């Protein structure tokens, strides 16, 4: 059955494919935008352990979950006019000493968090106001602190501080910033993962965008228990201070190690050659080199590997092509749904 036929079956059955995307950073909205265009039933689970930039400053001032990744996901799934999105995304320039660097959307999210009493309800209210097509769930209802142990045995706390060490990370974990209680995801997050056809991890920073979600104990357990296909979209480039010289198999091994077993079912791997002469490292100096493909290493971890040209390279930068990636995700999700129905 061709991909086009798959889409006809989905329409006839009147059921949108249920896709959960877990992560943060700039890669997440690329996938969400493309899923929205394909009319998927989307749930975005967004990391809340960021402590940099405007998000970090707001977090330090008023002690809320960092809003930056949530803001970008809201915009990617919103149906409001583009002009209103531009206002929401507007960032004050440096001539205003008080507001300098802050995005209007971050301030609105922080205000709603204060009004509603928690970030989860704040995001749900704002999702309605912005006519979001899908669901956006913070991974936790409390601000979290990212912690890391390095290979040399030293430890550090805070995303910015961890990446600044420029050391190989052995493992990460999260703690509640404001209490000693164990971080938890709320029930709608867990339900979305358990009911999904596909759970997508990435693309995004391995140690600071993807893993901070998976090490929340009940969220990680939901990923281990779900019957959905667990898909990992590997980054195109290695990242300074996080994945220096990593192969695709190295990325997957780190995720599986943190989950406690081989839980990645399918890996999407870019097979297209990257034209490094067009790549301007001055624009993205945190990226080092293309991630090496290691198919033997992936096979040893029991992964199905899908290799294709998944990149969109322009203006000296390299990104995932959202449409190409989402075409594969929807095929996989449809197959997973059919398998589940046969088992019932």
UniProtKB/TrEMBL annotation:
One of its GO terms (cellular component) is cytoplasm. The keyword Cytoplasm applies. CDD domains: YvcK_like. It comes from the Bacteria. Keywords: Cytoplasm. SUPFAM superfamilies: CofD-like. It is found in: Cytoplasm. GO terms for molecular function: LPPG:FO 2-phospho-L-lactate transferase activity. Gene3D superfamilies: CofD-like domains. GO terms for biological process: regulation of cell shape. InterPro entries: CofD (IPR002882), CofD-like_dom_sf (IPR038136), Gluconeogen_factor (IPR010119). Required for morphogenesis under gluconeogenic growth conditions. Belongs to the gluconeogenesis factor family. This is Putative gluconeogenesis factor. It comes from Lactobacillus rodentium. The lineage of its organism: Bacteria, Bacillati, Bacillota, Bacilli, Lactobacillales.
């Amino acid at each position: 059955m061709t991909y086009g036929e798959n889409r006809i079956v989905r329409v006839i059955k009147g059921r949108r494919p249920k896709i959960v995307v877990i992560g943060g950073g700039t890669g997440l909205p690329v996938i969400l935008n493309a899923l929205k265009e394909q009319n998927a039933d989307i749930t975005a689970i967004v990391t809340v352990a960021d402590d940099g930039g405007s998000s970090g400053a707001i977090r330090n001032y008023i002690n809320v979950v960092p809003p930056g990744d949530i803001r970008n996901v809201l915009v990617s799934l919103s149906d409001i006019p583009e002009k209103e999105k531009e206002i929401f995304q507007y960032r004050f320039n440096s001539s205003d000493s008080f507001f300098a660097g802050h995005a209007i959307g971050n301030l609105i999210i922080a205000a709603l968090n204060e009004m509603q009493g928690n970030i989860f309800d704040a995001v749900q209210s704002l999702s309605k106001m912005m006519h979001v097509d899908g669901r956006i769930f913070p991974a936790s209802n409390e601000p979290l602190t990212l912690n890391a142990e390095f290979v040399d045995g030293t430890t550090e706390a805070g995303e910015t501080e961890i990446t600044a060490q420029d050391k190989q990370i052995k493992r990460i974990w999260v703690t509640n910033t404001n209490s000693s209680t164990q971080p938890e995801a709320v029930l709608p997050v867990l339900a979305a993962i358990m009911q999904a056809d596909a759970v997508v991890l990435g693309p995004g920073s391995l140690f600071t965008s993807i893993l901070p979600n998976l090490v929340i104990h009940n969220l990680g357990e939901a990923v281990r228990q779900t019957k959905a296909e667990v898909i990992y979209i590997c980054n195109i480039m290695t990242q300074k201070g996080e994945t220096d010289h990593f192969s695709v198999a190295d990325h997957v091994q780190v995720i599986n190690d943190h989950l406690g077993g081989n839980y990645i079912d399918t890996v999407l791997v870019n097979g297209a050659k990257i034209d490094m002469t067009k790549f301007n490292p001055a624009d993205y100096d945190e990226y080092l080199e293309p991630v090496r493909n290691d198919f033997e290493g992936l096979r040893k971890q029991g992964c199905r590997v899908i290799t294709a040209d998944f990149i969109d390279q322009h203006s000296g930068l390299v990104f995932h092509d959202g449409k190409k990636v989402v075409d594969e995700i929807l095929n996989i999700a449809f197959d997973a749904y059919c398998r589940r129905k046969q088992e019932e």
